[in-house]
Amino acid sequence: MNEHQRHVKARQDILKGGTAEKRIFVHMEDLEEKKKREEEIKIEREKKNDRMDALKEAKMPWFCPECNKVMKQKLDDKMYRLHNQCFDCQVRFENKLRIEGKYDEWEQKKMLNNQLSYIRDQIDSIEDWKDEASNPFEVFDSVGIKEVELKKEKWTQNKEQVEKMSEEALEGLNKIKEEVEEKLNSFAI
Ligand SMILES: [Zn+2]
Predict the structure, then answer these.
(1) Which of 90, 149, 160, 171 has the greatest number of beta carbons closer than 10 A?
(2) Mean pLDDT of 168-178
């Protein structure tokens, strides 16, 4: 018996005055899909945390990979985390850019890339939220058909609202994303 047939049978049983199966499992396939997705999100989150921990724990190497100077200052540590070289090397690098008249462009690119990764994070979190909200119930405790229908109605309204809100938010974010990408592309030419 598939899910639909089970539903039909439960309805018939109740209409006949009998008792239906105690619990009607609704959207079985969605449920499996959801579980799979949750598992994926969990793994992804763990990976992210691992990366963060690795970054936090990653000790600054003894020597700057650029100039081989011993790195020991706090400034070196901060620069190394941001730019993978010591403070002096970064200053030298930025000075060179200034002399070549490329500094503003480099700085703007850096800023735009930061914006882009922020927007991407926002888009991801909205999509996660939408996924979660689209399946808030897993099992209907079926006391009577009426109650099931009521819950279904409530859920449908909620889902529509979430979809409308996330659609609007995503539209806005994607527009900004396109603008930022366009600006970045204009540098590449
Ligand atoms: Zn260096």
Answers:
(1) 90
(2) 95
